[in-house]
Structure formats: C-alpha cells, structure tokens
Amino acid sequence: MKGFWPVFKRELFSQFVTPTAWVLVVVFLAIQGVHFYLLVLHFAQNAELSVDQGPVQAFFGGAILFYLPLILLCPGMTMRLFAEERRSGTIESLLTAPVSTPGLVLGKFAAAFVTYVAMWLPTVLYIVVLRGAGEIDWHVVATSYLGVLLIGAGYLAVGTLMSAMTESQLVAILLSSLVILGLFVLGIGEFIFEAGPAHDFCAYVSVWGQMGELSKGIVDLRRLVIDATFIVLPLFVTVRAVDAWRWG
Amino acid sequence: MITVEGLSKSYGGSSFAVRDVSFRVDKGEVVGFLGPNGAGKSTTLRVVAGFLGATRGKVVLAGNDVAEASLLARAAVGYMPEAVPLYPEMRVSEYLTFRAELKGVSRRQRREHVAFAAERTGIASVIDKLIGQLSKGYRQRVGLADALVARPPILILDEPTAGLDPNQIRDVRSLICELGHDHAVLLSTHILSEVEATCDRALVISKGTLVAEGTIDALRKKSRSSGVRLVLSGTGDVARALERNEAVAHVGPAGDGVYVVTWQEGAGDVDVAAENVARAVVEAGFGLRELTPVKASLEQVFAELTQETPN
Fold first, then answer.
1. Model-level ipTM above the cut of 0.85
2. Angle of CA points A99, A105, A111, to nearest 5°
3. How many CB pairs under 8 A join A and B?
4. Does B103 contact A at CB distance below 8 Å?
5. What are the pLDDT digits (tens) for B204-228?
C-alpha cells in the first residue's frame, strides 16, 4: 500500500482544483434537486397513496432519475484517473517512484470515491427538509445511503479499470458507461425472462432490485456479496493491468 | 551502484529495442549514454529506472534487483524522463512536496528537501507558480529538482539539457558535474560536447546494442580514423614498408611526401603502433621528417561507431 496517501491527496486535489468535480457535482445536484422536487410534489398531492412507499423510498431507487446520473457521472469521475496520466506521460514519473501498484490504484479509486461521497452529501439536506413534514425512518435512510455508497463504489471501480485500459479519456468514459449500463440492463432481465436460472440470476445482480430492498430497510447479505465482487474484481484487474504495462 | 547485465527489451514480437546491454556505473561517476535518436537510449533508461520490465537480463540498483525488490530499487533512484511530464494544475512547491512524500521523505524533512532541490536547480524564484505557466527551461529544471528531491544515491537523467538555452545548459552541466562527486549519474544525450563537458565515461549505443564503452580519450583512440600523419623524404612504396605492421589499416598518400596512416580497429596501444611505424619507415630507407598523431573528432568517432554496426 506504499504511496496510497500521497496519490490519494494529489488525485483529490486534482479533482477539485480543476473544474471536473465541480461540474459533476453541480450537474448531479441539479438533477437530484428536480427529482426530489417532483417526488415531494407528487406525494403532497396524493397523501394517502401508499403506506410503505414514502418520498425517501421513492427517491432512493424508485425512479430512473436516481440511476441515470450514476450511469453517466461515475464514468466522468474516473475517466481521468489513469488515461490522463498515460496520455501526458506523468505515469512514467509515477511508476518510477517507490509506489506499490495496489497503493496507486486504491489511492486513485479512493479519491474518486470521496468525490462521489461529496457529491451525495448535500442530498442529506433533502431528508432534513422532509423531517419538517413528517416522521423519518432513519434506519431506512441509513440502508439507502449504504446502497448508494456500495453501488457507486462498484461503478467507480469499473470506471477505474476502464481508465487504465486506454490513453483516451473519451474512450474511458464511453467504455465504462457502456459496461455500467450493461450491468444495469442485466437487472431488467428479471422482468423479461420466465422463472428459471436466467430470471434468478438477473434478479440477483439487479441494481434496481437491490436499491428497492435497501430503500425499504432490507439488507440482504447476498446483495452485499455481489456489490463487494463488483468493487474488488475491477480493482484487482486494474492492479494487474498497471503491472502489465511494464511488460508491454 | 548501477549494474546492468545482459539487458534485452522487446516490445512484443521478435524485434528487440535493446539487445544484450551490460554496463555498470559506480558512485562518484558521471556516465554518458550516447547514441543517435531511436538507438534505444530511452528504452534502456526506462528499464533501468524500473518503468519498464526487462525481457531478459537484470538490473541492480544500490544492491536491489529492479524486478525482485522493485520498491527498494526505485527508492534509490531519481529519474528524470525525457519529456519531463508534470501536472500543469499544480504549483511547483506542491508538486515537489507531493513527489517528496511519494518517495518517502518524512514529513519533517519535506520542506527542507524541497527548498534544497529548488535552490540547487535554480527554480526557487518560481516555486509558487503553476507548472502549466512555466517556460520549457523551468519545467525541465522542475523535472531535475524532482529527481533530486529525495536525495537518492543514483540519478538517471534522460536528455537533461534538451530545450534549455545556452546559459541554462551551462548551469545544468555544472550542477551535474557537482552531483557526480557523491552520486552515480547516468545521463543520456545525443549532444557530444555534453559528454565531453560532463562525463567521466561514455557508453555508445547503436541500434539497440552497446558498440563502445570507455573514457572519452579511450573512445577516440578506439576509432579507426585516428592514426598518424607522416612527412617522409625519399621515394619508395610506403604501403609496402608498413604492410607487416598489424596495427595499420590503411596508408593514404596525400602528396609531397605526406602520408596518412590509419589504425586498425582495436589496434591496441596506438603509441606503440606509432613507434613501430616510425621504425619501419626508417628501416625501409625513408627519412622521417615529421610524425603527428591524428585524433579523431568525437563526431567522427560517433558517426563511425553508430553507422557501421551491422544490424
């Protein structure tokens, strides 16, 4: 893990000193602000709509406006990580410093993750606003945010890997968007296939299904295993890919 | 300090960018790595610095194998890549502090190390500027400061004076000479005067193989174009008088009793060879009026060494 801290700090510095992170955060908050506004409006007009479906549940995973920004913005946060270093050649100074590859990869990933967390942080205000209008189940809020963090970490891990695959940021963002979209669409298979292994598999990996459960406060260990897989596996492959450059 | 044994590097396929290169650089030595563009200088330096893995052979830096104890080996090296890649969005001080931390300089020493490296390379006046706003010369020196910042025992510099103006070149060269006292310095260049000005020894690489190694004088002597110029009196066949002399490659008459004798490649001690030539012409009945050693210019040596290598 040698080199984790300096790489992490520099990467975070880079995210916030250049417009990248700010643009992403502003775009995200604008979309989520509209999303939240529409939901609150909807529930205000249909007060007796449902007992177990409130604005919090609907906000976290009840509508496509939750997923769409993730699919588009997470690749934007990770596209620079390695592609930019390779294009500009700074990777050469970086890899000749005494830095371990896992330290490098995790440092970069962690910086993207912290940016992601910073992006979500202001949305806690929405919950605080809701508290004025009714009772909030904080357990549900906590599990919902757990889902947000896990799924985001998975998407960012995929983005990190794609950024290490190419020297072009554009290719990196396109590839990671495609893979993330692919994973998302896989979950829709749950509603396409008849009951059977394909149906079960799609339901198992469904991001939508997972957020549905977590936003109701249900934590399923199997879902957590899937999430951990989607975080660890791309990062592991990234470490191997970075090591492989030396021998290319 | 730097030991390279049988280093080969292939970028996939059967063609090698560098083939079977071996050399060593000791502490207190500045060694120039000389060769035309595309000869494999940068590839070799990248492998030695640990950026690329060797296809065959091994590199040992300060006692640590680059492949096996990579982190330890890399910690002993300050490497300045050819293009001097830097982060334009950082200030010089931020960048050097980042690099010092990355290279394991402790928090307490970091400020002092950065100030020291900045002062040595003459960038103290731009320390608070954004790297993206610096001129090429300053960026080059930021790269050099980066190589120095952790005070490593080994410095590997890929064309350290490229893009500098003549004054800056002089400054950097004298800095390298100074650093040479207590570091092992390996620098690449295709500027011959740079090697003469800064290096104790030179390695000449051509088409991926090492074609010569030694001090500048030894390289000159090694060149076939070095020989002696004779002024003789009397008539006769000078070439025949010298044909038994093994060191002689060629005798060229230049008119008016002037002959230019060139040495065979690897002729050994050219001073002894000159004595033998003098004796042979006198014994053949010529009057020896003048004998002047002809030294090849370094440009000539370079051209011969790098152009005549069979591929």
1. yes
2. 110
3. 69
4. yes
5. 888 888 888 888 777 776 665 578 8
